[in-house]
Each structure stands twice: as C-alpha cells, then as structure tokens.
Amino acid sequence: MRLLPRSLYGRLLATALLATLAALAFAAVAIGAVLERFVMHGLDQQLDAQIAILATAVGPDGAIDRGRIALAPPYDRADSGWGWRIDAPAGTIGSPAAPDPGPFQLEEPPRHLPADRNDRPDEPRPLLWRAADGRSHHARALTIPTSAGIVRITASAPRVIVERPIRAAMIPLLGALALLGIALALSTLIQLRIGLRPLGRLREALAAVRRGSDARVPPDQPTELAPLADEINALLDANEAALANARGHVANLAHGLKTPLATLALALRDRDPDGSLGAQLDRIDQAVRHHLGRARTGTPGGAARVATPLRPAIEGLAEALGRIHAARPVTAAIAIDPGLSVALDPQDLDELAGNLLDNAWRWASARITVSAERAAQRVRLTITDDGPGIPDTERTAAMQPGRRLDESSDGHGFGLSIARELAELYGGSLMLDAAEGGGLRVIVTLPATL
Q1: Are 348 and 422 in contact (CB under 8 A)?
Q2: Which residue numbers in the chain have pLDDT < 50?
Q3: Taking Cα atoms as reference points, which of 119, 100, 99, 98 lies closest to residue 108?
C-alpha cells in the first residue's frame, strides 16, 4: 500500500498538511497548559491568602482564637462551595463546605512554583480532594507546629472554578486555531502552485522541443532547475551531433556507392538486351537507399524535429513528379492550409511524401487529391488516387520492405515501407484505406508545430 502520492505536488501537500495539523494540536495543548497554569496560580494565591488569615487565629500553644477568624469572600457564603477548616489538637472547626481531612493526598509540586518552595514546611501545599457528591475540589493546606501538636489549616475551592475559565477560553481559541489551519492550508496550496510552476514551464519547454517549435530548453530557470535544464540541453546537443555524424556517414557511403553503381550501369548498357540486369542493378540501388535511410533514422540522436511548412513541400514534390510522369494524364489537386507546418526534418518529409506521391502517380487513372487538416497536436495528411487500389487483405503485405504486389510494374516495393517507418519515427502512423469511388487513400498522421 502506497502511503505517499506519486506526484510531488501531492507529497508536498500531504506532508505540509500533516505538519500543520501536528503544530496546531501542539499549540492547542501548550496554550491550554499555560492557561491552566495561570488560572491555578491565581486560585492558589486566593486560597493561600485565606489560609494566611486563618493562621493568625492559631496561638503558639495550639489554641484557636475564634474572634480572630475572618472570612474573605466567597468563604463568607455557606452555599458558595468554598470551604475552610482548622484541625488542632483541641478540636476542629470549619465551614459546611470544609474538606474532610481523611482522604487528603499530596499533589505533585505545581510547575509554576520552584521545587525548593514546595518543600518548605511553612508554605501551603496542594491537596487532592473529592467531595461526597463526587465533585472534585482543589485544596491547599498549611501545617503549623505548636507546643500542643500539629495544627493544619485547609482552604478549598470547587474544581469548576479552574475548569470554567479554561473551557471558556479554549472554545474561541480552538476556533481561532481552526481558522489559522484553514489559512495555512490555503497558503500552502498557493505556495505549492507558485513553487512548482517552473516544473510545468520546463515540461512545456520540452514539449516545444519535441514538437520542433524550439531547439533548446530556455536556460533561464530557477536555481534548483538550472542544472537540469543544462543537462537536457547538453543531451540535445549530443543527440544532434550524433545525428549529424550519422548523416555524414550515410552521405559518404551513398557517395561511395554512387560511382560504382553508375559504372556498372554503363557497363551493362550494351550487354543487357532485355534490361533484366539493369533492373536488378536498379533494385540494388533502391535497397541501398532504403537501408541507408533506416540507418539514418535509427541513430541515437533520433529524428530532428523542426517546423517544416507542409504545402510548399507537397507542391514542390507534385511539380517534380508531374514532370517525371509527364507521359501519364494525371492531375494533382492540393488542398492544404499555407500556414500548416509539421515537426519533421525537411529531408524526411520530402522522402516520406515523395514516395507516397510517386506511388499515387504510378497507379492513378487521372486524378490525385492531397489534403491535410490539423487535430490537436497532429496533422492528418491524406493522399488519394483513383487507381485500382489495394485489396484489404493485401494492405499489410504492401507495406513490407521489398514487397511488390504487381511484379509486372516498375518500382521495387520500398516506397510504402520507407514512408511508414519515417512516420512512426516521428511518433505518427500510416494507414491504407479504400477511396470513395475506387482507388487508394493513404492517411499519414504526423506531429504538428505551433
């Protein structure tokens, strides 16, 4: 069972709320203890004052001078619950609410008094006492040594005298602490939103790099995120360098193979009356191009994502293919928004769209339609021809490298597979479908740029 949320926001919020609740609970307990301390201190002073007055009525011989007994309010009222008592060798006197000395027990020394003061015999000591009706009382007792024996003077007050003001003070205090807790929770939410906002901006910056709208993550980041941004930019630089290096090797290899293949083509011109050897040589050239393209797209650097306008690229390819297939009565209609761009390297876009358009020109009867539309962060490119199409059962096989459905036609069966691999390299897809009225419709999904 996971105790903490997976998100940093949830973890920080949970720990902050737990810490706030613990701090508020500790504050409530501490403030209650402080209030009780001061209320008890005031009550003890009032009880000690009455004991001091009663002590003046005790003589050195233990005799009690009743004429010197004076009672301060509220001891002068019999129904007040405040009581007093003098226990002397000669007898006991006291008020009706006087505590019974039998069940007296000494309390722990009060924390608001020094330990040495609580140990002094001439100072009143706190007592625990519960009346016959079950109500708790707080009492103080003073023992006075006389020639006749020990005299003990006791003064008591109902425990409710202490509990009532503490309870009255704690109710608004708890309300104030609750409001403070709500304010702290809101401030925590605001703090987390502001504090974690740079992480969201960093994620958006990375998404912009992936879409091709930006080349690097902005280095102007908070102190804690600046090293991460530097590492990301360093990784992008390394990937770009690896991609450039791989493409350089591909170009060198293509250049190295170009001359031998051209030499072989010239040598076979007069020795290949049926053209079969030339066809095989052309097929080798196409296979080399295909596998070199796979090597280029499979480098550690991955695909370079730059904003490439879609309509100019399609128009340029359509114009070139129209000249190449000038003998065929095919026209192309292009319906693409001029402001629409894709996050593809221009060379990869030319290779992807060029293979699809070349296939369309080869098989179309009279018309090719090219359209594109944007959906969220994707661009859907559709190329439709009015040719014979491809049966549903053979569409998967048609995208396999080197697979030709019609061996009597020219071509080498790599066009669709190259286009599919390039689309998937950029996180897109390629799908073959039947066109309305007959023919083939190729749907390519590519990443869009802002």
Answers
A1: yes
A2: 1, 102-119, 299-302, 402-412
A3: 119
Contact 450, 391 (CB under 8 A): no
What is this structure's pTM?
0.49
Element (H, E) at 376: none
Is residue 286 within 8 Å of 414, Cβ to Cβ? yes
Buried b / exposed e over 291-323, threshold 16 CB at 10 Å, is ebbeebbebebebbbbbbbbbebbbebbeebbe
Encoded tokens for 185: 């929770």
Structure tokens at 110: 């009060």
Please report the pLDDT score of residue 380 as a whole number.
95
Query: Residue 122 and residue 295: Cα distance in Å, rounded?
Result: 101
Task: Please choose, from the candidates 67, 45, 47, 48, the residue with its C-alpha nearest in 3D space to the C-alpha of residue 58.
Answer: 67
Q: pLDDT for 62-118, tens place per residue?
A: 888 888 888 878 887 777 778 888 888 888 888 876 665 544 444 444 444 444 444
> ∠ CA 109-111-113 to the nearest 5 degrees?
80
Burial 413-440 (b: 16+ CB within 10 A, else e): bbbbbbbbbbbebbebebebeebeeebb
